[in-house]
Design a protein that fits this description.
- By secondary structure, the chain is an all-alpha fold.
- The chain folds into two domains: 2-113 and 226-260, no CATH class; 115-214, Tetraspanin (Cd81 Antigen, Extracellular Domain, Chain: A, Orthogonal Bundle), CATH 1.10.1450.
- Helix content is 71%, strand content 2%.
- The protein contains eight helices and two strands.
- The chain has a two-stranded antiparallel sheet with strand order 1-2.
- The relative contact order is 0.15.
C-alpha cells in the first residue's frame, strides 16, 4: 500500500511539473514571437540586428522544444510508459545542461554588455537612425519611453554623420528627432526646436530632453537581465524536479504493475 501510494504521489507531481513546464514554454514562445513582431524592445539595442534576430529564433525553438518535452512527460506519466519516461529524462537533461551552459556564458560575458550597448546606441545615432526604419522606430520609442535624447547627450544629433552629409553647405542645418520633445510641448514648438537647427547652435532644453539615452538603456537592460536570470533559475529548478520524478516513475513502473496484480 505504501509503495502504491508513493508511486501515485510521484505520478501526480510529475504531471504537475510538466503542466508548469508547458505553461512556461507557452510564455517563452509567446515572448519570442512578440519580440520578433515588435521591434521596439529596448533589449534589442544590446546586440546588432542579425544576432538579435538569431537569438529570438533560438528562444522560439527552445520554447517549442520544451512544449514537446512537457507533452512527452505527461504522456509517459499517464500511460506509465517506461520508454517515454526515460526519453523524457534524457531530452530534458540535455535541455538543462544547455541552459546552464548558456547562463554561465552570459555571466562570463556580462562585463561586455554595457560596452556593446554603448557602441550600438552611438552607432544608431551617428550612422543608422535615418537609414534603418527598424532602428529608427526602436530609438524613437526609447527616447519617448525613457525621456532621453541622443547617445551620451542630445547634442550627439549635431554630430550625426548622416545629417551633416545631408546638410547643404549654404544652410548647414541639422535635425533632432521629434521623439526628443517633452510630452507637454505642442507640435509647433517641437517643430521649431528640432528641425533645421544651425550646426553648433544651442539646444532648447525646456523643449528637448536634456539627458542622453546610453545610461538609461544600460540600466533598463541590466534590470531585465536580472529578471531573466531569476526566471531562468526557477525554470531550471522546476526542470530538475521533473528529472527526479521521471526517474522515480521510470523505476517504479514495473513495481507498480506488479503491485496492481
Amino acid at each position: 500500500m505504501g509503495l502504491g501510494g508513493c508511486y501515485s504521489i510521484a505520478k501526480c507531481f510529475m504531471v504537475i511539473v510538466n503542466c508548469i513546464i508547458f505553461v512556461l514554454s507557452l510564455g517563452i514562445v509567446g515572448l519570442a514571437i512578440w519580440m520578433l513582431v515588435d521591434s521596439t524592445f529596448y533589449v534589442s539595442m544590446a546586440v546588432d540586428h542579425s544576432n538579435y534576430t538569431i537569438s529570438l529564433y533560438i528562444l522560439l525553438a527552445g520554447g517549442l522544444f520544451l512544449l514537446l518535452v512537457s507533452f512527452l512527460g505527461c504522456c509517459g506519466a499517464f500511460g506509465e510508459s517506461q520508454c517515454m519516461l526515460v526519453s523524457f529524462f534524457c531530452i530534458l537533461l540535455i535541455v538543462v545542461v544547455a541552459q546552464i551552459a548558456a547562463a554561465i556564458w552570459v555571466y562570463c560575458n556580462a562585463d561586455k554588455l554595457e560596452a556593446m550597448i554603448r557602441y550600438n546606441v552611438k552607432s544608431t545615432v551617428q550612422e543608422e537612425y535615418y537609414k534603418d526604419d527598424r532602428l529608427k522606430t526602436t530609438f524613437d520609442t526609447i527616447q519617448q519611453g525613457l525621456e532621453c535624447c541622443g547617445a551620451e547627450y542630445p547634442s550627439d544629433w549635431n554630430e550625426s554623420k548622416n545629417i551633416i552629409i545631408g546638410a547643404s553647405l549654404e544652410e548647414k542645418h541639422f535635425h533632432i528627432p521629434k521623439s526628443c520633445c517633452r510630452p507637454s510641448i505642442d507640435a509647433k514648438r517641437c517643430e521649431e526646436a528640432t528641425q533645421k537647427l544651425n550646426l553648433g547652435a544651442g539646444i532648447n532644453y525646456d523643449i528637448i530632453y536634456d539627458k542622453g539615452c546610453v545610461t538609461k538603456v544600460v540600466d533598463v537592460v541590466h534590470d531585465n537581465m536580472v529578471i531573466v536570470l531569476i526566471v531562468g533559475i526557477v525554470i531550471i529548478v522546476i526542470e530538475f524536479v521533473g528529472l527526479i520524478f521521471s526517474l522515480i516513475l521510470a523505476f517504479g513502473v514495473s513495481n507498480s504493475r506488479h503491485y496492481k496484480r
